[in-house]
Amino acid sequence: MRFRPIAVALLTATLTLPAMAQQAPAPRDVLTHYAELVHAGYADSAASARTLKLAIDAFTRAPSEEGLREARARWLAAREWYGQTEAFRFYGGPIDGENGPEGRINAWPMDEAYVDGVAGNPTAGIINDRTLKLDTETLVGMNEKDGEENISTGWHAIEFLLWGQDLNADGPGQRAWTDFVDGKAPNADRRRAYLKLVTDLLVADLESLAEAWARGTKNYRADFVADPASLTKVISALGILSRAELAGERIEVALDSQSQEDEHSCFSDNTHRDIVANALGIRNVWRGEFVRSDGSRLIGPSLHELVANKDKALADRVDADMSASLKAAEAIPAPFDQSILVGNPGRARIEATVASLKSQTETLVQAAQVLGIKRLNTALPD
User: Fold this and answer.
1) Distance from C-alpha of 306 to C-alpha of 286, rounded to nearest angstrom
2) Are 260 and 307 in contact (CB under 8 A)?
3) Please, which pLDDT band fits residue 41 given cuts at 50, 70 and 90?
């Protein structure tokens, strides 16, 4: 909580009070701190992606089983940081505005045969088509070309290249490291080149997002903080991620279809952690806090404080709902593609997470009304 300085005369006159009065932050204070959170989130995500890049650079120079294990571990670690940034979407900002990179960063679900060979079709994909030039411009141009599942870049293209298809009920994909060794697998040279290109692009895109939110420059952040309407964008983004995207697109669709193809990180079996990171990102913004990758804690004026100044009971209820959603998400057992099946005991835990996310969205809508936002959109934007 923030405390504002009080004049000495006033302080002297009220020494008999048990504690100094607290004042709620102004909306501009909340927006300024929100921008700090966003910048820190993207900065940490970019840093973790650079660590992933180092592992992939080493692996592609000299492929080995140990090198592939290290690259996979770095991908999983980096996803924890990116997942928390999803709360910064859904209002046409730097990531998903007209020319934003979100589609080439985190688009899914992915038709893996668009990129590389799959079971039953080992010669499929861009990698096995030697008439296609492999460079960043080509891969960006082919991303979502002729179909939204034609994903050629981003987290899930990298994930597929590292794990391969998940053909195992009890674990992730088991791509052999020798797929990247000349003479051991067809087009291994192109597989190495492709993996390096998409990783480099991911790092560049994340760094550009951090720059868009850096302080002290004429960028998106400066205009965002100066616009009072941005407060609606901040809270609406939480509602959209909570209800339409996370509870709906990322969980309910998979529950309905019971299909591995509808889970988020299907090659690595990391979907359960994606859900946790998204839920944590929502609560981070609500509370105005973020535990950074170096262990430091960024905290400041928050939506929770703004609402609590008008209706403390409601603010605390939103907070409790978000903590309940996070706890429910953490209880989802891996692998997600088995837990969604009817008859699997994990399915009830996934359904409980959906119910909790819906509940927190309802109280979030009430919180928005307290702040004067009459109708909070919680549906995915067109």
Assistant:
1) 10
2) no
3) very high
* Rounded Cα distance, 12 and 29, in Å: 28
Q: Mean pLDDT across the stretch 16-38?
A: 78
The DSSP secondary-structure symbol of 274 reads H
Q: DSSP for 288-335?
A: TEEE-TTS-EEE---HHHHHHTT-HHHHHHHHHHHHHHHHHHHTPPSP
Question: Which among 237, 213, 276 has a CA at the least distance from the CA of 80?
Answer: 276
Contact (CB, 8 A) for 361 and 247: yes
pTM of the model: 0.92
Per-residue tokens: 63: 């492929």
pLDDT tens for 201-236 read 999 999 999 999 999 889 999 999 999 999 999 999
| Helix H or strand E segment including 116 | none
Contact call for residues 361 and 243 (beta carbons, < 8 A)? yes
The gap from C-alpha 131 to its chain's centroid, in whole angstroms, comes to 35
Question: Which of 228, 227, 240 is CA-nearest to residue 87?
Answer: 240
Is the omega angle on the peptide bond into residue 335 within 30 degrees of 0, that is, cis?
yes
Q: In this structure, which amino acid lies at residue 60?
A: T
90 secondary structure, DSSP code: S
328 Cβ contact partners less than 8 Å away, ≥ 6 residues apart? 349, 352, 353, 356
On whether the CB atoms of residues 327 and 58 are closer than 8 A, the answer is no
Distance CA(347)–CA(345), nearest Å, equals 5
Read off the amino acid at residue 68: L
Q: Which helix (H) or strand (E) holds 290?
A: strand 289-291
Which tens digits make up the pLDDT trace of 254-295? 999 999 989 999 999 999 999 999 999 999 999 999 999 999
Q: How far apart are the first and last CA of the chain?
A: 37
What is the rounded CA–CA span in Å between residue 190 and residue 229?
A: 48
What is the number of other CB atoms lying within 10 angstroms of the CB of residue 293?
A: 15
